[in-house]
């Protein structure tokens, strides 16, 4: 932990001492699964146009009621991370309340397919990316934290690393909240569907899978207890992961700090020799 804090402090010194010029593209991605055009932001490192190399990609999923542009607005430092880490960062849209699942009752909410297939295909075709799990990481906050881990569970052949920041990792925690029932139906009569789409109840699928995982949650967050339960279950299942608990609530103040730990984790995943 001391080494991690030292590196983060070093990043902070670089950030305050230099001007970085990562470029930001706003794009639309065709979704056949939802018959629509869906927005995303792509952040390219400064040297992208000056080389022919292929870059690793970090996908960041937004939370409930937000949009793809929110994370960059709240954390403009994303451009710094793209530059200093030599990575492409993609912020796709996940709808108002998709929970990043394929809804069996609403054809306009097929976001697991969109993120794991349509977004990946578009980014790999339009940008110079490392087209393998070794070059892809995914994380997100709150609803997006659930989505990122669900992608890792169901698509370990796509993502080699995944993270969650204050994730709503058990959909059954408060089944009448956050419009989850609009995506999966009433909990009492559709329990099997809920369990199939809930990270906590599907995490065993990561046993034996080579996916690097980092989970963090603030001690004062209303999702803290379900994150702790997930951590303990992963320990029982012997699923390797980093679990970080720090002071903080379910807020942007926490996530602005949290993303730094996540980015360092992914940097070490992409560049283990450094």
Low-confidence runs (pLDDT<50, min 5 residues)?
A: 13-18
Number of domains: 1
Biggest sheet strand line-up: 1-2-4-3-5-6-7-8
The CATH class is identified as: Alpha Beta
CATH superfamily (homologous) name: Alpha/Beta hydrolase fold, catalytic domain
Q: Helix share of residues?
A: 25-40%
Order of helices and strands: HEEEHHEHEHEHHHEHEH
From the 3D structure, determine the CATH topology: Rossmann fold
Terminal CA distance reads: 17 Å
Per DSSP, the total helix count is: 10
Q: What is the strand tally?
A: 8
Counting helices, strands and paired strands, the structural category is: alpha/beta
Q: Indicate the radius of gyration in whole angstroms.
A: 18 Å
Q: What is the CATH architecture assignment?
A: 3-Layer(aba) Sandwich
Taken as a percent bin, the fraction of beta residues is: 15-25%
Verbal overview:
With 274 residues, the chain is an alpha/beta fold. 38% of the residues lie in helices and 18% in strands. It has one domain (21-270): Rossmann fold (3-Layer(aba) Sandwich), CATH 3.40.50.1820. It contains 10 helices and 8 strands. It is globular, with a radius of gyration of 18 Å. It has helices at residues 2-17, 70-74, 78-85, 111-126, 143-154, 180-184, 191-196, 199-202, 224-236, 252-270; strands at 23-31, 36-44, 57-61, 88-92, 136-140, 161-165, 212-218, 242-246. Residues 13-18 have low confidence and may be disordered. Strands 1-2-4-3-5-6-7-8 form an 8-stranded mixed β-sheet, with helices on both faces. It starts with a helix and ends with a helix. Strand 7, helix 9 and strand 8 (242-246) form a beta-alpha-beta unit.
